[in-house]
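User: Reviewer 2 asked us to show a designed sequence for the structure in our supplementary figure. I'm pasting the structure tokens here. Could you produce the per-position amino acids so we can include them in the response letter?
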């Protein structure tokens, strides 16, 4: 069974209440439940982690080396700032899919740079919660 780790970065625990015009009305629990359901249909074993802390995210990425076949990550604001998360992703040698609920390229200038994209297989952005579900489908298709 393919093993996929999903990491939600900072402030994503507030989904549903946080800027619903930008990020939608669905909370993180509901998104995670939908991911679990989809994973069952796709024959994927899933682990899901949310963290507001850069170091914790890095440790979780490093631990993925011993478990995951694929990483799906929404690094949230760290997308635009964190060389350390980028280095962690490029260190583990596990295909990584970057996810964003919003289309970061039609927002503020500071969001238009992703430190993660150059070390990811690809990026899915702008489809709201569906970005995560599309990423899981992509993960199912990726070769180990
Ligand atoms: C986000 C986009 C980021 O710019 C922002 O800091 C987030 C969420 C998204 O999913 O659209 O927290 O990653």
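Assistant: Here is a per-position design you can include in the supplement:
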């Amino acid at each position: 069974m393919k093993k996929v780790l999903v990491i939600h970065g900072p402030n994503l625990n507030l989904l549903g209440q946080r800027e619903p015009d930008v990020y939608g009305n669905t909370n993180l629990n509901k998104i995670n439940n939908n991911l679990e359901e989809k994973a069952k249909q796709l024959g994927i074993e899933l682990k899901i982690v949310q963290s507001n802390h850069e170091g914790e995210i890095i440790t979780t990425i490093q631990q993925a080396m011993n478990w995951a076949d694929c990483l799906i990550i929404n690094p949230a604001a760290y997308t635009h700032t964190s060389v350390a998360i980028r280095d962690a992703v490029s260190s583990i040698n596990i295909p990584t899919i970057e996810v964003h609920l919003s289309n970061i390229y039609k927002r503020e200038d500071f969001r238009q740079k992703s430190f993660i994209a150059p070390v990811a297989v690809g990026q899915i952005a702008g489809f709201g919660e569906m970005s995560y579900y599309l990423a899981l489908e992509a993960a199912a298709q990726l070769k180990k």
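For the response letter, you might also mention the following. Residues 11, 74, 76-77, 79, 100-102, 104, 111 surround DQA (CB under 6 Å). Residues 28-42 form the longest helix (15 residues).
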